[in-house]
Each structure stands twice: as structure tokens, then as C-alpha cells.
Design brief:
Blueprint (H helix, E strand, L loop, with lengths): L7 E6 L3 E10 L2 E9 L8 H10 L6 E5 L4 H6 L3 E2 L5 H10 L6 E5 L15
Parallel strand pairs: 3-4
Antiparallel strand pairs: 1-2, 2-3, 4-6, 5-6
Length: 122
């Protein structure tokens, strides 16, 4: 997983880092540029809890691009098909779709209470 220098980075820890995600500012929201869970921890809800903790602090919509096989996972996390993308993301999606099957999804601001900080243990 790569992260931009100005991205918000979130991690889940057990004995070490077991998951991470990266959010980058775009227009009035955030772009989820990466979400990774170590293979031994997959299927245990780590990704969903980490994502929920990070998005509880989001100040606007959150967009992501994913492979169609991942759409059901993100739908369970409250994402749906993006009806509108910021121009910067629309251009990227068009370029990426030349060589990859990708779907654009969006989620509005989380209604969960937020807490300070940008890391969490899940």
C-alpha cells in the first residue's frame, strides 16, 4: 500500500500492525486510496472496524475506487455507487479504467461520534 505524503494514515495493531488505510484530501471530502489487512487477520472484521474509526472523523464525503469483487464489502460499510466525483477523481478514474476494472463508490459523512487522533486499536 502506498500513501501520499500529505495523507492521513490509520493503523490497527495487535502484536504489530495488522491493517492500515490511507485517506487523502480531495475537494470537500476524502479519497480512500488504500486499505490493507494482513492475510492472517482477514475475515475477522478488522478492516470494517478500522474503516469505521477513520471515517468517524471524516468531514465530508469519502470516495474510493475498487475492483467490482470488493463492492459487497464496501456496501456493508455504507458505501454506494458514486453519483458524482470531484473532477480530480473523475479524471483519475478514467485513466485507471484503461487498464483496470474499477468501480467508484462514495459514502457520506459518518454519523458516529468521533474522537481525537488519527490512529486506533481494533
Amino acid at each position: 500500500m502506498r500513501a501520499a505524503g500529505d495523507a492521513q494514515l490509520w493503523v490497527a495493531r495487535a502484536a504489530g500492525i495488522v491493517a492500515g488505510l490511507s485517506l487523502s484530501a480531495v475537494d470537500d471530502g476524502l479519497w480512500l486510496t488504500g486499505l490493507f489487512v494482513a492475510p492472517p487477520q482477514r475475515g475477522q472484521g478488522v478492516a470494517g472496524r478500522l474503516l469505521e474509526a477513520a471515517l468517524a472523523q471524516a468531514g465530508g464525503p469519502v470516495w474510493l475506487f475498487c475492483h467490482p469483487d470488493l463492492v459487497p464489502f464496501y456496501q456493508r460499510q455504507g458505501f454506494s455507487a458514486a453519483q458524482h466525483l470531484p473532477q480530480a477523481l473523475a479524471g483519475r478514474l478514467q485513466r485507471y479504467q484503461r487498464s483496470k476494472r474499477l468501480v467508484a463508490l462514495q459514502r457520506g459523512q459518518s454519523s458516529l461520534a468521533s474522537s481525537p487522533g488519527n490512529s486506533t486499536s481494533v
